[in-house]
Amino acid sequence: MSKKNHNRFNISSASGNSQQTASDSQYQTSSDVTQNEMDSPKPFRSPVLKVERQAFFLAFSEILLVFAVFFVYGARAVPDTNEPYYVGKAFHAWRPDVLKNDAFLNSYNAHWFFYQTFGWLSLYCDLNTATWIGRVVLWLALAIGWYRLSRAIIPVAWFSALSSVAFAYFMLKFQMAGEWVIGGVEGKVFAYVFVIFGLDALARNRWGFVWVMFGIAAAYHPVVGGWSVVAGGFAWLLQRKFDRTPLLPMLVPLMIGGLLSLPGVLPAILMDWGCDKEIAYKAYRIAAFERLAHHEYGKAFSWAFVTRLGLLTAAWLFCSATVWTRKKFPKRDEKNISPKVLTNEQLAQYAAPPGFRIAGFVIGTILISCVGFIISYGFASEKYLDFAASLLRFYWFRMTDFSVPLGMGLCGTALLGWVSTLCERENFPKELTWWTKIFIRAAIFLVVIYCAVYAVSYQYYFHLFTKQEMTPTWNQMNGIRQNCEVIAYGAVLLISGFLLFYHRNYGNAAKQEETPRVLPSRPVFLTFLTALILFGGSVPSFLEQAEQRISAKVPRTSGNSLRFHLLWRDMCGWIAKNTEEDAVFLIPRNSESFRWYANRANVAVWKETPQDSKSMLVWSETIRDCYSSPDLPAGFESYPFAYVLKYHKTPEEIGGLQKKYDFSYILTEFDARIPLLDFSVVYKNERYILYRVAATESQTPPVETLPPSEMAIPSFSPTQ
């Protein structure tokens, strides 16, 4: 195939729907055969997809472009969400003498393989440098994997960049269970790199590499790798019996993948080995119904999150049915066909398109999530609560947040190739009025759909607030608007996907002589729908993310205010220079970046939850002791920590906590409306104040560097 023809989209090779002709040159069987050899049956071997390589410079440029897309979406300020957790644990695994009195860092290393393969950077660089090195390596690996996967599905130059923009957008805006891939450094991101390489092998029909890649993914994250194996097995079952690789040749790759997964699977298995069942079930309940309910418990998901992913899933089903269906057998019964009577040429002709195998994987993950909803709604009663919690801890909803956006990104670019091929077959009218009429009519129709769904979802939100007798805050209003926009766009995606599916046979009808010639406006309309799916939300989102990367300097772990972030850095910097290295601090419950900046141990924070059952119960008790009280008002999580300590903890209770958890300092928010605690103040600035609660021979004198000012905190009326 010449380079010119290779870069032109071939509808028969990339889409694979029923009206397409076979593209035998895309597949290679066990060996190159002569015409005489084709006439006799050959030993069966599933045909492997063959994709012509691009020139090195072109491939390198395309990979860099995909990397740039991932960089724009993931390059937030360090440390990002979860990075203090995973990077801190990885560093501590290699340097256990540092912060050896920190309870969380000394808890069980559930992600042992990730800590061992990443934590060695602590021997040569600091936290920030190591994190950026990890990010660049991850994004580059993701870009290479995505480029290969996109080329296997849509072998057209630069289409991998388009699909990556769509994938990043759908992943960001349509998630249901809080999953993400493009972002900070942690074990699951490493796992998703190998899942994408496994999907590339799956698209090319190289099943041996599939199981090996999924096995390495399980080593980094057992849940991600394990569910990928299950979904990959479902995709294998969807293949026709003569099109799929037999089970026997896959046994060795399956065994290799299983062995490679042991560094990640064994620590997860041994984590609660020998633990009392009652303790384990209590920890499972805490994880599934309290701490991680937004990830594990389907009943606790926001209706908006479920709706938006459901709309995207339905839209993807229509789009994939348009371009990724299997070829039909002319005048034959599939059950009567045996690979023993088919030639290699016929095997290649009837092979499933690569997108069909990816669709099988996505459908497998959707079925896994359906089982999670069945567990959440069917076994969440008090009678089966322990049983449900023990199952929900396996994150049944994790993979759909990744697979459905992946499928939609790839399918959207396949649709673009499909409609571009249809446009090449048609002679567009030269009059501009045709284009104007079509675009105006389609735009009006879809805008009406968008506005109607937006209005209904907006009213439903306020109905929920009215029912609970609550008034939404400014931040809640902003979140409501964003959710309604995504839901409305999801409805437009659904309608567009349905219309594309409805017109999926247009290409064949236009070629048949006995069929009357249809209006040339049809491919223009289909092009409009495809562009709306692929670019309608992704391009504005990409520009928004690019603007945020340029202007944002505040990590998400420190809030949204640059001023508060600088004051937080000032306090943590003073602590790092002027306090004992083995000191333990009681800090606000959401201060996950404290250890990152101050390099000191803390009692507990909400974000850093241990993995093993015994440590999780200790952590839960610590959170209740330090941050809650029976007389706290509803929503105490939003109240300043200083308010909780001053009005809901007596000095005797604080002293008891100090003896129990052995902390020497208390760090709280500073506000003129809240009287100081009855402890020695060692440092304060506009936002934070540090108390010394453990007596020493030489106490640091009080220091005031910045004048106090009124902080933006939740309104309340404290009473003693």
Keywords:
720 residues; mainly alpha; 2 domains; five-stranded mixed β-sheet; 7 strands; disordered C terminus
Topology record:
Layout: H1 3-7, H2 11-14, E1 27-28, H3 35-38, E2 48-49, H4 56-74, H5 83-94, H6 112-118, H7 127-153, H8 159-173, H9 187-203, H10 207-220, H11 222-238, H12 247-270, H13 277-291, H14 293-296, H15 303-323, H16 344-350, H17 354-378, H18 385-392, H19 398-425, H20 432-467, H21 474-502, H22 506-511, H23 521-535, H24 538-551, H25 562-578, E3 584-586, H26 594-598, E4 601-602, H27 613-627, H28 641-648, H29 651-661, E5 665-669, E6 680-684, E7 688-692
Parallel strand pairs: 3-4, 3-5
Antiparallel strand pairs: 1-2, 5-7, 6-7
Helix pairs in contact: 4-7, 4-8, 5-6, 7-8, 7-9, 8-19, 8-24, 9-10, 9-11, 10-11, 10-12, 11-17, 13-18, 13-27, 15-19, 15-21, 17-19, 19-23, 20-21, 20-23, 21-23
Structure report:
It is a single chain. The protein is mainly alpha-helical. The chain folds into 2 domains: 56-551, no CATH class; 558-692, no CATH class. It has helices at residues 3-7, 11-14, 35-38, 56-74, 83-94, 112-118, 127-153, 159-173, 187-203, 207-220, 222-238, 247-270, 277-291, 293-296, 303-323, 344-350, 354-378, 385-392, 398-425, 432-467, 474-502, 506-511, 521-535, 538-551, 562-578, 594-598, 613-627, 641-648, 651-661; strands at 27-28, 48-49, 584-586, 601-602, 665-669, 680-684, 688-692. The strands form 2 sheets. A 5-stranded mixed beta sheet has the order 4-3-5-7-6, with helices on one face. A two-stranded antiparallel ribbon has the order 1-2. Helix 8 (159-173) packs across helix 19, helix 9 packs parallel to helix 11 (222-238) and helix 17 (354-378) packs antiparallel against helix 19 (398-425).
